[in-house]
Amino acid sequence: MSLHQTGKILELFYSTNDGRINTTELALDEKGVIEDKYYDKDIQRSVLITSQESYKLAASHGIDAPYSALGENILIDYNPYHLRPGARLAIGDALVLEISQNCTLCKSLAKVDARLPKILKDDRGVFAKVINSGTIQKGDNIYLLNQQ
Questions:
Q1: The overall pTM is greater than 0.85
Q2: DSSP structure string for the chain
Q3: Mean pLDDT computed over 65-74
Q4: Domain count of the chain?
Q5: Mean pLDDT over all residues of the chain?
Q6: Range of the domain at 115
Q7: Is the pLDDT reported for residue 148 higher than 70?
Q8: CA dihedral (126, 131, 135, 139) positive or negative
Q9: Tell me, what CATH number does 8's domain have?
Q10: 87: which of 26, 56, 82, 83 fits an S-S bond (Cβ 3.0–4.6 Å)?
Q11: How many other C-beta atoms can be found within 10 angstroms of the C-beta atom of residue 125?
């Protein structure tokens, strides 16, 4: 197995019943983001990874969406939307995530702007499940694992 650096973590978030929390560090295990309100709800959709490209796409349509508005846990400077289910990303020292599916759109995006669900139909993010537990930090490198 070899590593190919693809990008960095820009921002980290988790959801609570009181809203979204921006943090510098997230702990994850096989059930998802440990402090997130969706922890242990759906393993295949336990981590949402979004590229800054989604925010740039929204901005190109005149939509000023603040980071975390798309519901992401991890905002990165690499666009992973071409990755197929089964592709794996290593982050920081130990965490490994496996892409499980493209992100489906939800009605909550329309709260930001009614046009957003259509604009980001295929560009909102990807869901991943945790393969190796670990803690990640803002600024950590992201590596695409090549299975050989």
A1: yes
A2: -EEEEEEEEEEEEEEETTEEEEESEEEEETTEETTSTTTTT-GGGSEEEEEHHHHHHHHHTT--PPTTTT--SEEESS--TTPPTT-EEEETTTEEEEEEEEPPP-TTHHHH-TTHHHHTTTTS-EEEEEEE-EEEETT-EEEEEE--
A3: 95
A4: 1
A5: 91
A6: 2-146
A7: no
A8: negative
A9: 2.40.33.20
A10: 83
A11: 24
